[in-house]
């Protein structure tokens, strides 16, 4: 597991062996794991943000949009 993005609101973790990503929303305590075609789509959406506009605000907005679609609450036992 590698942290590849960290902002005030999100972490993005890379799981190289599984070729997957975990999106963790710090504000709303929700998480979403992406692998296979979903991980590929995530990479495409990230690369669609122009290099000069790839700020924390732009990346966080995309991550929030993705998490709004399918993230689940973090549950601690």
Describe the structure.
This protein has 77 residues and is α+β, with helices and mostly antiparallel strands. It contains 2 helices and 5 strands; from the N terminus they run E-E-E-E-H-H-E. Strands 1-2-3-4-5 form a 5-stranded antiparallel sheet, covered by helices on one side. The model has no long low-confidence stretch (mean pLDDT 93).
Key features of this structure:
77 residues, alpha+beta, five-stranded antiparallel sheet, 34% helix, globular
- Whole-number mean pLDDT: 93
Oligomer: single chain
Provide the spatial order of strands within the biggest beta sheet.
1-2-3-4-5
Order of helices and strands: EEEEHHE
Strand content: 25-35%
Overall structural class, as computed from helix and strand content, comes to alpha+beta
Number of strands: 5
Number of helices: 2
Q: What separation lies between the terminal Cα atoms?
A: 22 Å
Taking pLDDT < 50 over at least 5 consecutive residues as the criterion, the unreliable ranges are none
Radius of gyration: 12 Å
What general outline do the C-alpha atoms trace? globular
Give the biggest sheet. Answer: 5 strands, antiparallel
Q: Helix fraction?
A: 25-40%
Brief account:
The protein contains two helices and five strands, in the order ββββααβ. With 77 residues, it is an alpha+beta fold. A hairpin with a 3-residue loop joins strand 1 and strand 2.
Write the layout of secondary structure elements.
Blueprint: E1 2-6, E2 10-15, E3 20-25, E4 30-35, H1 37-47, H2 56-70, E5 72-73
Antiparallel strand pairs: 1-2, 2-3, 3-4, 4-5
């Amino acid at each position: 597991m590698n942290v590849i993005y960290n902002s005030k609101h999100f972490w993005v973790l890379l799981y190289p062996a599984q070729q997957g990503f975990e999106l963790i929303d710090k504000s709303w305590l929700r998480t979403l794991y992406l692998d296979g075609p979903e991980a590929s789509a995530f990479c495409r959406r990230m690369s669609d943000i122009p290099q000069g506009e790839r700020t924390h605000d732009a990346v966080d907005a995309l991550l929030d949009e993705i998490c709004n679609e399918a993230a689940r609450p973090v549950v601690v036992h």
